[in-house]
């Protein structure tokens, strides 16, 4: 009901303003009966220049209405009203500032700067007043928002999790051996030398425990407009486990580039390199993992709050002596429903080509999620994720190539610890259900995750 009332209020304000403008323009364009047709056309084409001057109170009322429309989340309507206002009253410093701020909120500094410059020139031609002094401060602040700057940020995060398995696969240790599989055929050829009894025991033992992720990193961004905006990120991570011979440590560096193309499109490019060392058990050797990734995404902004992205990515992975390539195609949409509610959805299609005996696969990853700010301090969210992987050929235990289908439900609630939102604690509840004929990939797992982050 509140959403309906807000929508009706926005529509009423918008059409009321349009009606006021239409009446004002009509009054300015109305020609006497004795006026010729040609003179009437000229008068109509220059109607805006003949609008009677509005009083300061009228401009303040009109500016307040624009702010109310923007506060209700109708940024497009507020931008249209602000544009119309500067056309009717081009010498209004206040309306120029409001229009520039709306452009900045829409990440269109290229359009905002001319209005800030024009408003500054208007004040230079006027006598010094208290309002002018206050407007100069606002203009200087908005200009700084559009200026090219270098931002350096350091952050630290920690995540603790209790799990039934410290391995990637949470399923059982007993793997059924299919009749006609590669392993079964070998055993039949060996006769009494091979007796598998219809199953194989991976003997992974008790592998449950507690994991703590430590993550530190830096981010350096050159914020500029009309050119590529680069961001360099560095990450160092370490996974500590409650049991020995289980762990992970590594580092990652990533370069992101963004560039606006017109008012509706933006290119996002990324290049990253990662190196890690992992161990999963006392009897297993350490695994060296290296990955390089390149990606390009084109985003189309249908409105100021809704955008659709399509992208491709290529990844090369080396794990010990095994090499693989992964190709990704992505489609995603994100929207800001209100000032407090955001929603997003994405689907990724993958194709992984592996060498040295590893299995190639095709995959699909579908994700939907919403986030909500309950108060300025408390936030919450929920998401669902469905993945499906189809392998190109069977494992030695299986007669046919298997599939892995996983569904993950997650919900979280968190709180900002500081007013500037540089520190937060987030509590996640995650349920994962994996279905597969290969028993290590067949399981159901519930996890509680505590996440802490601080930005320096």
Automatic annotation (TrEMBL):
UniProt KW keywords: Signal
Keyword Signal in annotation: yes
Signal peptide interval: 1-30
Domain of life: Bacteria
Protein name: MSHA biogenesis protein MshN
Organism: Puniceispirillum marinum (strain IMCC1322)
């Amino acid at each position: 009901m509140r959403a309906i009332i807000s929508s009706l209020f926005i529509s009423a304000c918008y059409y009321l303003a349009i009606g006021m403008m239409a009446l004002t323009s009509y009054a300015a364009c109305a020609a006497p009966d004795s006026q010729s047709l040609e003179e009437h056309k000229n008068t109509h084409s220059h109607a805006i220049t003949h609008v009677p001057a509005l009083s300061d109170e009228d401009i303040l009322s009109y500016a307040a209405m624009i702010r109310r429309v923007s506060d209700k989340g109708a940024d497009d309507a507020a931008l249209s009203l602000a544009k119309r206002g500067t056309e009717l009253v081009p010498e209004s410093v206040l309306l120029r500032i409001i229009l520039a701020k709306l452009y900045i909120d829409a990440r269109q500094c290229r359009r905002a700067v001319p209005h800030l410059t024009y408003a500054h020139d208007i004040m230079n031609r006027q006598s010094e007043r208290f309002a002018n002094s206050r407007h100069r401060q606002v203009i200087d602040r908005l200009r700084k928002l559009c200026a090219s700057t270098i931002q350096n940020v350091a952050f630290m995060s920690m995540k603790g999790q209790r799990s039934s398995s410290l391995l990637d696969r949470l399923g059982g240790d007993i793997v059924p051996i299919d009749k006609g599989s590669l392993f079964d055929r070998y055993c039949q050829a060996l006769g009494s030398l091979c007796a598998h009894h219809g199953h194989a025991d991976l003997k992974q033992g008790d592998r449950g425990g507690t994991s703590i992720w430590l993550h530190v990193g830096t981010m350096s961004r050159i914020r500029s407009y009309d050119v590529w905006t680069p961001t360099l990120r560095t990450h160092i991570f370490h996974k500590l486990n409650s049991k020995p011979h289980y762990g992970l440590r590594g580092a990652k560096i990533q370069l992101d580039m963004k560039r606006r193309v017109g008012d509706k499109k933006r290119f996002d490019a990324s290049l990253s390199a990662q190196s890690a060392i992992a161990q999963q058990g006392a009897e297993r050797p350490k695994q060296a993992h290296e990955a390089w990734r390149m990606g390009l995404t084109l985003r189309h902004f249908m409105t100021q709050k809704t955008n659709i992205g399509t992208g491709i990515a290529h990844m090369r992975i080396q794990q010990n002596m095994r090499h693989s390539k992964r190709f990704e195609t992505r489609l995603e949409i994100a929207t800001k429903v209100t000032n407090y509610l955001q929603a997003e959805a994405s689907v990724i299609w993958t194709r992984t080509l592996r060498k040295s005996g590893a299995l190639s696969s095709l995959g699909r990853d579908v994700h939907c999620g919403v986030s909500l700010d309950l108060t300025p301090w408390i936030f919450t969210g929920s998401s669902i994720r469905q993945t499906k992987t189809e392998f190109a050929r069977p494992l030695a235990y299986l007669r046919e190539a298997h599939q892995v289908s996983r569904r993950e439900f997650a919900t979280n609630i968190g709180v900002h610890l500081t007013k500037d939102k540089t520190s937060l604690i987030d509590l996640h509840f995650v349920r994962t259900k994996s279905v597969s004929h290969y028993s290590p990939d067949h399981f159901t797992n519930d996890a509680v995750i505590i996440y802490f982050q601080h930005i320096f």
